[in-house]
Amino acid sequence: MYVDHLQLTDFRSYASVDLPLEAGVTTFVGANGQGKTNLVEAVEYLSTMSSHRVAAELPLVRSGTARAIVRAGVRAGLDDPRRLTLELEINPGKANRARLNRSPLRQAREIIGVLRTVVFSPVDIAIVKGDPSERRRFLDDLLVTRWPRMAGVRADYDRVLRQRNTLLKSLSGRPRGGSPAGATPRSRSMESAEATLDVWDTHLARAGGELLEARLTTLADLTPHVSKAYADIAPTNNDATAEYRASVDLDATREQEQPTARANLSAALAAGMVERRSEEIQRGVSLVGPAP
Q1: Under 8 Å between Cβ of 154 and 161
Q2: What integer pLDDT is reported at residue 77 of this predicted model?
Q3: What is the mean pLDDT of the chain?
Q4: Last residue of some domain: 53, 86, 119?
Q5: Do residue 142 and residue 277 come from a single domain?
Q6: Of residues 261, 239, 263, 250, the one with CA closest to residue 292
Q7: Cβ atoms within 10 A of the Cβ of 245, count?
Q8: pTM of the predicted model, to two decimals?
């Protein structure tokens, strides 16, 4: 699979780009700041709807314009005549739009995975030297490449987490307890808010369990390759290993008699939220999830 044509409208520094490409190695040559990386980033975003350079969409749109369009022709292979046309309209602050062979997709993220890409850049050193969040991001990018539907799971988890944190923050500092007989409007409001928190706990545990399961599976599949790569550059040292640290006891989840690993993980996350609820309300932030 390769890109044989790239068109950009108001993407990054480009007002317009119409670039024919060929199979094989393509090298962009130019002075600093001319936009070489912007071209690579455009293909990456069309493939994954994410960028290795920024977390938000606004920087992807040329200054002074409201939207950007990335369009590419994709060949299935050198000996395969099939060709796809992918188009993504980037609308910061609004819903993005995607088309496949000129036909609109129901959701923009359905375009993820149609074009498969791998990006390696200097910032990837942060996977080793940076914060744990960088390693989680790397894992999440891998699992979305393997299972494109996980992009929706990630989005759902992030949405629920934001809403749950908002509720926790609103509960922080409020008095808890009180007898039902002497319930005041304030205490009833607290009870109602905590009941809502139960609902968010359920949603967060479900999405978090699925995300954590995918991360653990991807890490297990990746570890032998990490060990081999490390042995190639440091053959006299001990083997390199990789392990995942979560806010719940992963060993305990393997001992539970649940039907699937995902159910184990979701149950462990839900139990952790119950156990640490008072602390979470006091601090106004979620403390239990797929990451420590």
Answers
A1: no
A2: 79
A3: 87
A4: 119
A5: yes
A6: 250
A7: 8
A8: 0.71
- Of 245 and 273, the one with more pLDDT: 273
* 112 and 204 within one domain: no
Domain that holds residue 95: 2-119
Give the CA distances from residue 287 to residues 135, 165, 225, 251, in Å, rounded to whole numbers and listed in that order. Answer: 19, 10, 32, 19
Q: Count of domains in the chain?
A: 2
Asked if 95 and 108 count as a contact pair (C-beta separation under 8 A), the reply is: yes
Amino acid found at 258: Q
Q: Could you tell me which residues come within 8 angstroms of residue 217 by beta carbon, excluding any fewer than 6 positions away?
A: 143
Structure confidence by residue, pLDDT tens digits, 47-77: 999 898 888 899 999 999 999 999 999 998 7
Amino acid residing at 107: Q
162: tokens are: 């934001």
Residue with tokens 């809502």: 196
* Mutual angle of helices 261-275 and 185-233, in 10-degree steps: 130
Q: Do 170 and 89 reside in the same domain of the chain?
A: no
CATH number of residue 256's parent domain: 1.20.1050.90
